[in-house]
Design brief:
The chain is built from eight helices and two strands. By secondary structure, the protein is mainly alpha-helical.
């Protein structure tokens, strides 16, 4: 079974927010941390907000944070939300659909998968917040949206050059 990209990105958002505690994190910063489209991430975050996983604050000093403590957020509930009620296969228009037993077997497998995730909380996978925060600190300072050269440098894993100012790096969990 493979999770959708939507679920993948939602989990990434939730992990980063969990690593930053109650601090407000701008969505642009999360998008830059993972090199994800800001607009795409906005749609995901909106869904997480409507479902009560995150709370958002608009404006100049706005951002995102978890709506409740990470220890209260079930990974199973999060995946049920992001994956939706659709099955693993789409049998619409299939000749053998009326007699096929595969959809029922796959539905049972999906439920077993999510049931295992019900036993874990967001705090279980983001429990090493200090280590995670340190990893987010390694993301180079952001250029303008869509700055391909910044993204390429980050993907290549190049270290900051000797001429770069250490304070030019930004804190993914701002304290101001």
């Amino acid at each position: 079974m493979k999770l959708s990209r939507h679920s993948d990105y939602a989990l990434r958002v939730m992990i980063q927010l969990a690593s930053c505690g109650d601090e407000l994190i701008p969505i642009r910063r999360i998008a830059q941390s993972y090199d994800i489209s800001h607009n795409h991430l906005m749609k995901i975050v909106q869904g997480l907000g409507h479902a009560g996983f995150v709370e958002t604050l608009r404006g100049r000093h706005g951002g995102l944070r978890l709506a409740r403590p990470a220890r209260e957020i079930s990974l199973g509930a999060l995946i049920r939300h992001t994956e939706g009620a659709g099955g693993l296969v789409d049998c619409t228009g299939c000749l053998i659909a009326p007699a096929c037993g595969l959809p029922a077997v796959l539905a049972e497998a999906m439920e077993a998968f999510v049931k295992v995730l019900d036993g874990y909380r967001l705090s279980d996978i983001a429990g090493r917040g200090g280590v995670l925060r340190g990893l987010f600190d390694t993301v180079p300072a952001a250029g303008p949206p869509g700055d391909a050269s910044r993204a390429a440098r980050h993907r290549a894993g190049r270290a900051m050059t000797a001429t770069a100012q250490p304070d030019a790096r930004r804190d993914p969990c701002p304290t101001d």
